[in-house]
């Protein structure tokens, strides 16, 4: 994998926090920034996928099987929580 160097500007307080965390984790600042960016990208992609799934489910009206399953789930949930409050 080819590496690319880049420069970024940070508020001093954020830089100080990153520096302290990198020391605590015993990793370089560069590695910390890579891990943070990888995590951000993964979270963003997961959110986009979740949004697309929700949109596709929203677009389709529930069929008879889905409606029956929802009703069974509601009844089951009511039995589970009955008397807990």
Q: What is shown here, in short?
A:
The chain has one domain (12-81).
Number of domains: 1
Shape: elongated
Radius of gyration from CA coordinates: 23 Å
Based on helices, strands and strand pairing, what is the structural class?
mainly alpha
Q: Helix and strand succession?
A: HHH
Helical segment tally? Answer: 3
Mean pLDDT: 92
Strand proportion: under 5%
Unreliable stretches (pLDDT < 50, length at least 5) are none
Oligomer: single chain
Topology, number of strands: 0
Largest sheet: none
Helix content: over 70%
What is the CA–CA distance across the termini?
56 Å
Plain-language structure description:
This protein is mainly α. The protein has one domain (12-81). 74% of the residues lie in helices and 0% in strands. The protein contains three helices and no strands. The protein has helices spanning 12-25, 29-59, 64-81. It is elongated and about 55 Å long. The termini are far apart. The relative contact order is 0.05. The model has no long low-confidence stretch (mean pLDDT 92).
SSE topology sketch:
Blueprint: H1 12-25, H2 29-59, H3 64-81
Summary keywords:
3 helices, 85 residues, mainly alpha, elongated
């Amino acid at each position: 994998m080819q590496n690319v160097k880049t420069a970024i500007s940070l508020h001093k307080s954020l830089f100080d926090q990153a520096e302290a965390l990198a020391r605590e984790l015993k990793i370089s600042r560069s590695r910390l920034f890579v891990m943070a960016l990888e995590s951000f990208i993964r979270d963003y992609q997961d959110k986009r996928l979740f949004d697309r799934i929700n949109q596709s489910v929203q677009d389709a009206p529930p069929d008879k099987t889905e409606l029956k399953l929802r009703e069974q789930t509601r009844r089951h949930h009511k039995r589970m929580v009955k008397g807990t409050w």
